[in-house]
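Entry 14. Structure prediction run on the chain below.
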Amino acid sequence: MPFYNSEEERQHGLQQLQQRQKHLIEFCYTVAQKYLFEGRHEDAVPAALHSLRFRMNIHGLSSVELVPAYLLLAEASLGLGRIVQAEEYLSQAQWTVLKSTHCSNATHSLLHRNLGLLYMAKENYEEARYHLANDIYFASCAFGTEDIRTSGGYFHLANIFYGLKKLDLADSLYTKVAEIWYKYLNDHYQVLSQARVQQIDLLGKQFVNDTGLDEAQEAEAIRVLTSVLNIRELTTEKAPQKTVFVLKTLVMLYYLMMNSSKAEEYAMQALSLCREYQLDIQEQSTIQELLGLILAEEDQPIT
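Output returned:
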């Protein structure tokens, strides 16, 4: 136990301890989320448990602040096929939310998303759709209908419709998901391009690309967009422009993540499809511009 000369020092010490614990909560939460999006459910459990423990230390045993950690543990349990355990964590989360008088829309959204995933795992698609619709509603209230944090609800709903062979509904939702991610990434890409043109960095340092996302959100973007791409590739002959659009979005994602090899791979694939199906010249030039930036950073010629 540290020794303090005064009450003021003791309070300062406690504040510093709480700040460290809050930092650890966020760190553990992000790590656990990242593992879940990467399909590493077993690895997510220790980080989620640490996040829960630190939350209990700061907020007590019945605070609504515990809910995000319960939801991580529920999702990890679902991924490991432990449905009963997932239901226990979700029941705890639901009970905590019911007792709370000030639960945020973002937390309500996460709770309904995880309940949607539970009912998907149980193949109760009617109940799953109900919860995912609520997820989208609360996420829209918190962040807006076109936000990347709302797009997860659209994505899971699309997966349900796809599994039920309601392909038109699934198609429109996958399109919405891709468009939301494209707009977000394109906005960051345009800001970066403008900065390069205006030569804002007067010290002559190399510009550092940035997605504006944390590690968990980057993992989510990769998982979601790769899943949509896999589905689009099944119907490339009918709608090649939809496949190219997702490829273009992945190019920007990997370019901003500074993964040049993956960005180049998807750009070449998109360019090849544009030429094969004789798509819009403007589309080809956009992809060539992206490819030019990628290869310029690698000092390679464009072929």
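The radius of gyration is 22 Å.
Filed with the rest of this week's runs.
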